[in-house]
Each structure stands twice: as structure tokens, then as C-alpha cells.
Amino acid sequence: MRTAIRRAAWALNRLFPALLMLPALGAGAGAQSGPDLSAAMDDLVAANRILYRQGVVDGFGHISIRHPERKDRFLMSASLAPGRVAKADIMEFDLDGRPIDQRDRSIYSERFIHSEIYKARADVNAVLHSHSPTVIPFSVSQVPLRPILNSAGFLAPTVPVFEMRRVAGSGSLLVTDGMRGKALAETLADRPVALMRGHGNVVVGPTVQRVVARAIYTEVNARLLLQAITLGGPLIYIDAEEGKAGEGNRDRNEAGHATDRIWQLWVEEAMGTPETKR
Amino acid sequence: MRTAIRRAAWALNRLFPALLMLPALGAGAGAQSGPDLSAAMDDLVAANRILYRQGVVDGFGHISIRHPERKDRFLMSASLAPGRVAKADIMEFDLDGRPIDQRDRSIYSERFIHSEIYKARADVNAVLHSHSPTVIPFSVSQVPLRPILNSAGFLAPTVPVFEMRRVAGSGSLLVTDGMRGKALAETLADRPVALMRGHGNVVVGPTVQRVVARAIYTEVNARLLLQAITLGGPLIYIDAEEGKAGEGNRDRNEAGHATDRIWQLWVEEAMGTPETKR
Amino acid sequence: MRTAIRRAAWALNRLFPALLMLPALGAGAGAQSGPDLSAAMDDLVAANRILYRQGVVDGFGHISIRHPERKDRFLMSASLAPGRVAKADIMEFDLDGRPIDQRDRSIYSERFIHSEIYKARADVNAVLHSHSPTVIPFSVSQVPLRPILNSAGFLAPTVPVFEMRRVAGSGSLLVTDGMRGKALAETLADRPVALMRGHGNVVVGPTVQRVVARAIYTEVNARLLLQAITLGGPLIYIDAEEGKAGEGNRDRNEAGHATDRIWQLWVEEAMGTPETKR
Amino acid sequence: MRTAIRRAAWALNRLFPALLMLPALGAGAGAQSGPDLSAAMDDLVAANRILYRQGVVDGFGHISIRHPERKDRFLMSASLAPGRVAKADIMEFDLDGRPIDQRDRSIYSERFIHSEIYKARADVNAVLHSHSPTVIPFSVSQVPLRPILNSAGFLAPTVPVFEMRRVAGSGSLLVTDGMRGKALAETLADRPVALMRGHGNVVVGPTVQRVVARAIYTEVNARLLLQAITLGGPLIYIDAEEGKAGEGNRDRNEAGHATDRIWQLWVEEAMGTPETKR
């Protein structure tokens, strides 16, 4: 019974978040409005918390979504550790990385990662930059990050590595302007993931749920591949056909399957259910 | 005193779960009934939660038990992350993987792993499919997973690896029909564990408690073997006699010994005691 | 202020545990009595909980202390997972591993590890058998477990490995009788730690606090040595002089230093303070 | 709303800690006084708790700050596990490691690490000694600890290793007098980090926040470098220019950026917010 109530409340919360959460009265940026937007912001907050809880981000890293009503805008938190982000922290940016209504808020200096990818990739509705720990060793070595795990089949056939020295010489590794962001977007090309040498990765996708799942399984796959390489000898990688078949399952986006199943778990853990919150 | 009460309540709960838990009024599938069934379902729920807590499953993976009163049926959750499964989610399936009373519930697409193993193995009363992380590297390499730890002696002498490409070519790695499930059951043969290349494993046994313990120590042994291989040089494996002796101890199934001792701990941690639940 | 009260209560609890905990009225074995015994039993319960919390034991493993008033007896829990042991579970055994007052309680089948070591080692007042995970790889390889960490200097110069096959051929790895226990004690000789091939280790010492600390730092050192070996090339080990100097510091047993400092932390975490318990 | 209140309370606490915390009435050492001092002591307590929570210290290790009003004094806890340190435990020491007002308190025997570094390094306002686990393997091997991660760029170009045998022969590895402390300070020279063979490291910096962040990312970088070395082949390290650029960002010390962003997260987690504390 408790479980049934919990589930019902959870479902209600997912369908009508405005009923159970405080309306974002004047909380966000100027142009924000509507029920879709509010639900999208809830998902974005959940994504921030989930990525922290799952160890993909620590106090650094940022995730954004394209504005559900304006394709030339994106939504992202003010400059906070992802584990501390709340709905009132979500801000709106244009595709040059300019905040629409900054007020006194501090903003991420690497927001150009997001703006330039949204410009270059009409298929992309969510972008993550992280320091996902186990991708770092692959980013500094000549051993490519390749998928050995079905859940990470989207990494097939290869993952490119962005090298800042080729773009701007030895110096800051941060993507702090449009030129650097554009170069990163070019390295990413039409892929879901690119590594950034000595720094982390970017992960993109059609929805924020898919980006979160891709980021988590990229990290898991990196750990498992490192272990497989430690064992020694030839390895069998997920091949392009297998990768495509897995993505096909996830693209169908059925209730209770693939990303939907695990997203429900992650949200419950990172956000608490309405019951546990009270 | 608190501890004694806690233990007594726990024991009572184990003996008469119906007293302390809500009866599954109309909650499960049509043909379910009787006190054995209710206790079995409690164990199955606990198994789901334990496997999640111990890191054998994440949001994916599923565990089933053969119906205690009908050998041609098995019980398994609707399509949920194992860490979220409750008694009301348990459904009944026939040995072709058809739900007896599906209603509007989403079901696991890989249920054929379970149905085909129950068909092929009269000795098996519980089946797990997991993405147990550290078995993945062994599944994609040519280094066999062998036991070095007494608690994993059931892995002796060897663990087979299922390769979907041999069955159905390059494509989806999911076991989504009876043909694929049958091929997996054939690879498993009379063993307790088989790896699935790039995907995970299946673990089977005479009781759900044994399957949970086998799954956990398979993961532990994989981690330790990886470390031993890292050290380099020849290793001493648990041999067939040692494996048999260990299984003999566990088959005796004495109170306070072997699987019984650790199952009590796992249940307390994953489910809470009656005291902590209130 | 809260902290000061917490500390005072904690100290009080340490000095007069009988004031704050339920008296073990008829709870333990027949011959038990006196305030020293009660305090010793509290420490033994804490040791069980600490070892579980620190990952040295899982549901298996057992720790004992020599009876503070009778050198020919030792105290150990009935057959329970260490993380579930409470004061009422502590039983008394003679040096042949016979329970003094068993009643209906299940007892550890490997109690002969303890009885035979107490017989052979007058300097030893506490004995642990564990499946400490990272010692397993060393127990099955030809790479010796040696100290590289100051806190594990007691492992210098070498750690022996017990091989059951030499004693009883291939079969059960469990130390289930006096003959096997005696052989293990002979392998241990005058050392603080011996590994048991494919099984775990034994750790002994003058006090239960020292045994707990030795067990934890044996595990930590095993992890770090494995990493150092992974780096490659020659390593600098803690040498015999350094090991002796470290043990000298710990033998002085000063308040707020060495084992005392970390034991306070471990007890608070594993048992809760009186404040958090209420 | 809850979040906004929490943030406001948190900010208030940071600005006026004396309002929300118990005044340290006679709690600290004789010469202590003033609001700067009280805030500095709060930060020092937080640093102790954070380092424990992040796994840089276990029950051992100690962090100090230079007295904000007297450059010839430093502040450090009495001899306690860092995870248990509270404001009332903070003591004052002179630059020869003598406590100003010891009373009956036990003090760290390695306080000379701190006193000698403060003497030698006018730029340093905080000093940590830890047994940071993953630096140990590097301290005993010939493989240098070098940065591969942007957040650890301060380690470029190299990290020195202190060898006690060169100073005092084989024996205790503890820095228990001024001679040993001075030798360690000489090995450190003008660097932010030095390893101590078989023992741990020292980490220094201009503020306690920077020292905490440096200690945490030194540990993270050690883990990732170990993994990168496991992959094999040549690696790309953070070079001197990249290291300098990263430190330049951190030196700017802007609200919501670099160390400030992650320090807020760490404090919330280690100390609780005023809300969660009540």
C-alpha cells in the first residue's frame, strides 16, 4: 500500500509537477513560461542531482537543455556545484552563451561548450560537460575509449578526443569563448560523446534523460574497459551493428524499458519521492 | 533487549510474513495463492533489493523464482528497476514467458532467459540475469573467470561464455525470444553461472538465497581475480574438490551457517527490520 | 557544547558501560562476571561492528578475545554475521573450542582457529579470522604481501601463507577441528598476521583494539601494494627497523595517539554515541 | 523556497558564524580573539571534516592554519581524528611547535611538520599532513606523481619525495622534532605538495580552502594517473603553462568559480546546513 501510494504520488509529480512543487514565480529568466518549460526545468534539476550522485560530476561540470519552446535558447543553472542546483537557479541563455537576464548571478565560464553545440547540432536537446573520472586516463593516453558493454553501445565505433593545444596552444584548458566552443563542437561532429584531453568530456543527446544515461554508462564502460585491458589479450568490442541495435531499443522510449526504467530509479534516489521529501 | 526483540520480530516475520506485511490482495497474478507463495514472494522482493544494494544489478537485471506450487510457472517483477520492486509488482509467467495476467503492466523483454532455463533445468528454482560489473571484462576477454575465493568455489572448474553472434549474428544482444533463451540455456548447461559477452551473466540455483549469494560472490571473485592477475605470475585456483566441499557445506543449509548467516544480514540491510520499518 | 557533552558521555560510556547499556543479565555464558568482563564484551561487540563497517569482514569472519579473568577461556559471538552481533550473543569457550554453555545457540564451525592460537600464544589476547578482500589475491599468488605503509609496519619483514592442501589435501578449506587449527597456528608462529590461501587471513595481537587496527591496515596495505606493483619497477618497503619503531609507538598506548585515536573514531561510527543512540 | 532559505542561512552562517554557533568561550587557547579568528577556526573545523569525508585522511592526519592575527602562531586541533574535530578542540602553537596553553590536552606528535613549514614559507597560510591513500604507491616507487588532470595542474612540473632514511636513518618515519620538520620543509621547497615515502604527503597553500582542494585533487590525480599507466603507452601530462593557467584561475578567487564553488558543496556535506543541523 505504502508503495502504491508512493508510486501514484511519484507519477502525479511527474505529470503535474507544478501541483507539488513551488511554482517558479519570477525565479527563472525573463522569457520562461508554460507547463512544458516547468517540467523540463524539473528534469534538468534532477539531471544535475543524479549526475552528482552517480559520480559523473563532483563540484564541477554542468548540464543544459535546449529551451522547449525556443530553439535558439538553452537552460542551465547559475554557477553552482551540480549537487546543489535547485529550480530557482535555472537561467536562460542565447546561442552565443549570453544570459538573457543575469541579474547578480554568477555564470559558468565554459557555457560556450553548450552554446556552440546547440548551434551546430539541431538534433541535440541536452548537453553535458563533466570531469567524469575514468574518461580522463583515456583522454591522455593513446588507447581509445571503445564500448565493451551493451549499455554503452552508443560509443561505437570510436570516441574523438579534443586537444586544446591544437586550437589555442598550451595554456588554459577551459572552453571560455565561442572559438574554443566551436572547435570542440567540430571535434564532436555528429557523435554523442567526445573526450577533452586532461579535462573530461562532453555528452549530448536528444533528451536530458538520454544524456544522463549516456554519461553514466560512458563512465561505467571506461572502468570496465580499463579492467579488461588489465586482463590482457585481445578483446571483443561492441560493434557498430550491436551499437545501432541498442540505440534502436532506447530510441523507442517505451514506458518501463531502457532509459525510462533506470531514470525512474535515479530520480527517486536523487530527489526523494514526494513521500520521503515530506 | 532491543536486539532480542528485533531478532524475535525478524524471526516472526520470516515465519509468518502475512502477519506483519499487507496481504497481496489481488495484487499479484491470477493463479497465485497460499502461505508458501506469500513467503516466496517476500524472498523474491528481498532478493531484488539485496542485489541492488550489493551492486550486482543497477537499474537493469531481473531475478525470478519458480512458482512454489506449480512447476510450470515462474514469478518475476513487472518491468521495474530491481531496487524499486515491491510485492505488488510480482507477476506470474508460464514457461514460454507469457504473463498469466498482464493487465496494463510492462514486462521485461528478456523474460525468455528465465522461461528457457526453467524448462531445461528441473533442479533450478531461481534465475538471475544481471549486468554484474566485473564479469563484463571477463566476458569480452580470453581470460577465463575461475574461482580463487572459497566462497566462489561453485565456479569451479570453468564458467562458459554465451556469444550472441554465434546464435543470431551481430545485432541486439538482448535475449528477446525463446530461440535466444534456449541457446543461452544450452551454453549454461548444468552449471550455476554463465557469462554473456558484452552484457552480463545468468546465475541459477536451487533457492533464491543461493542464487543471490552466488551472484554476489561471482562479482567479488571477479574483482579479486582481476587483482591477482595484476600481481602477475602463476595463481592457485580453487580446484574441483575444494569447490565441491564448499558446496556441500552450503547444501546442508544449517541455521546460522553458510548462506543462512549472510542472508539474514542482507535482508536486514535491504528491507529494514520490522522495528526500523515502523 | 553539544560536542563536549557528546564526548563526556562517550568517555563515561567507555569507563562505566554498565551505566548506559543494559546489563547482560543471564545473557552470556555461565562463568562470565565482573566489570572488566562487561567492558571487554563491549569492546568485542564494537570490534565486530567496526570490522564490518570497514569492509574487513562481510557476513563471514569472527573475532574473539581471551577471557580477561580466565586465561584458559575465550569469548566470541554465537554464529552470526559480525555486523549483527550484540552483547547478548557473546559466548564463552574453552581452549579446545568447546562452548561452556551452548544452550540452543549455533556456533562458528571454525572456532578452532581461535582456540589453537590462544593455546600456542600466551602473548595473544585477541584473534580475528576474516575474508579481508584484498589479501585474497596475495594468498593465491607468489607475490608476498609486504608493508609499504607506515601504519602496516607490523607486517615486516614477511607474512606467511597457510596452505590447507599441505595439511589435509584438496577438500574443505575450513578450519573445522583442532588439527587444522594447530597447523594454522604453526604457520602463524610468532607473527601478527598469516594469510590463508583462497580463504582470508588471521590477525592476532595483545588487545582487541590492536587486532582491529592491524586487520584494517593489512587490508589498506594490500590495496596500496597492489597499486604500487601496477606502477612497475622496484619498490621501497617498510624495513624491519621502521616496522619495529612503529610498533614501539603503538605499544606505548598513549591517550589520543596511535590506536587510541582511531579506535575512538571507529567506535563512534560503528556504535553511535550515547546521544545518537537515543 | 526551502532552498532559498537554506542558502540564505548558509550565507549568513558564513558571514556571521558567531550568530549561529556557540561562542568558543574559553574553549580555545589563551591568545585567541576577534571575529576573523572565529571565522578562521570555523573554516579549519570544516577543513578537518571535509578531508575525512573525502577520504584524504582517515583517523590520522592533521591540518593547520596560520593565525590570522599573529604570523608567528598557527592553529590546529588537539590530538583527535580529523573527523571528530570541533571548534573547542582548536589550539594555538608557536613556530617551534609549542602549545600556547596546553592544559591537559594531548597534542599531535608531528606538529613540527607545520611549525617548520610556516617558518620557511611566508606565502603559506595552511598546512596539511595526510596519509592520502593513492599517493603512497607513488611515494615508494620510482614513478613520479605528475598531473594529468586540469584540476591538479598545481602538481606541474614535478612533486618531490621526502625520504626519512636520508635524514635520520632507518627507524621511525614520524616527523617528531624540528630537525625532521626542517628537512621536510627543505624537500618541499617552494612547491605546493611533497610526498613522504611510505607515509603520506604534505600539502600547503595560501588559504585553507586551497589546501583542501589541492589535497583532494592530488588524491584524485594519483588514482587517475595510476589508471592511465595501467592503460600503457605514452601519456600527455598537464604541462607547466597549463598548470600555471589553472592556478591563475584559482588565484582570482571569484564567487561561484573554482575553489569557491566546490568549497560550498563540501562544507554543506561535511557540516550540514543550519537547517539540517537543527
Blueprint of the fold:
The structure is a homotetramer of 278-residue chains.
Chain A: H1 2-15, H2 17-20, H3 35-53, E1 62-66, E2 73-77, E3 90-94, H4 112-120, E4 126-130, H5 135-140, E5 161-162, H6 164-168, H7 178-188, E6 193-196, E7 200-205, H8 208-231, H9 240-252, H10 258-271, H11 274-277
Parallel strand pairs in A: 5-6
Antiparallel strand pairs in A: 1-2, 1-4, 2-3, 4-7, 6-7
Helix pairs in contact in A: 3-8, 3-10, 4-7
Features:
seven-stranded mixed β-sheet; 278 residues; alpha+beta
Could you characterize what this model shows?
- Four copies of one chain form a homotetramer.
- With 278 residues, chain A is an alpha+beta fold.
- Helices cover 44% and strands 12% of the residues of chain A.
- Chain A is built from eleven helices and seven strands.
- The first copy, chain A, has helices at residues 2-15, 17-20, 35-53, 112-120, 135-140, 164-168, 178-188, 208-231, 240-252, 258-271, 274-277, and strands at 62-66, 73-77, 90-94, 126-130, 161-162, 193-196, 200-205.
- Chain A has a seven-stranded mixed beta sheet, with helices on both faces.
- In chain A, a hairpin with a 6-residue loop joins strand 1 and strand 2 (73-77).
- In chain A, helix 3 runs parallel beside helix 8, helix 3 (35-53) packs across helix 10 and helix 4 (112-120) packs across helix 7 (178-188).
- The radius of gyration of chain A is 19 Å and the shape is globular.
- At the C-D interface, helix 1, helix 8, helix 9 and helix 10 of C face helix 5 and helix 8 of D.
